[in-house]
Here is the input.
Amino acid sequence: MTYLAAAYGVIWLVVFILVFSMRRRQEKVVEQLETLEEIINEKQ
Amino acid sequence: MKSSRSLLVLNTVAAVAILIAVYLALVQAPEATNVVEEIRPAQRIIYFHVPSAWISMVAFFVTFIASILYLRTNNVRWDIWAYSAAEIGIGFTIAATVSGSIWAKPAWNTWWTWDPRLTTYTIVLLLFIAYFMLRGAIDEPGRRARFAAVYGIFAFLSVPLTFMSIRWWNTIHPVIIDPSAEFGLGPGMSTAFFFSLFAFTILFVDLLANRIMVAWDEERVAALREALTAN
Here is the structure.
């Protein structure tokens, strides 16, 4: 049973890391887009 | 707006499919009867280990096709598809390798052996890690995409080799789909096994769609930065 829990734990950890890293990148990129759009609007 | 709603539906479908797969694998599927009693609980690892390996190979196949399409069309969309799929592929290659190693301990009495399947799969992992090292080493986007596409096509050649390794060479790794084989699918195990393959495939499509969406936004940021620098 320990092996089963460990193996499933590893697979869920990988899925969690993938989802978490995508979410972090999405937040970062949305922030950057807003900043850049503000700069462009100020310039116009 | 429409794409984010589609993505939300896809996220929900993937989550529900995975929950059903967990239920089938841990509750509904019978204990394997074709292995010795001590290994029976660990045998349930195959319901998620094999689908992890399956989608890693599907992901690298997407990289392969997208790389060919990039070289033919020079469209950045295919470069985005290629590296997005490769990134997910690496994640699931690690998941399959580690979960396989955990299964091997009770089944083979060792965490690791240089069996043809394990060796070729490790080579696949290293080749696709190198894919990202190559991308990181080239600054010019067009050149980076072209080099990565050529490399991605050649790196993929290791995937069919890994898939066929347990059929071509003398190996201790089981052919799970063969019910007569040791550690193969026993009676009543097929439903949970094939549903898990299906659920993981939906999960892959979902992760890829999300990753591609983030990548498009990153492209927009790069384009806006370039436009600002040019002005």
Summary: The mean pLDDT of chain A is 90. Residues 1-44 of chain A form one domain. Chain A touches chain B at residues 1, 3-4, 6-8, 10-11, 14-15, 17-19, 22, 25-26, 29-30, 32-33, 36-37, 39-40, 43 (CB under 8 Å). DSSP finds one helix and no strands in chain A.
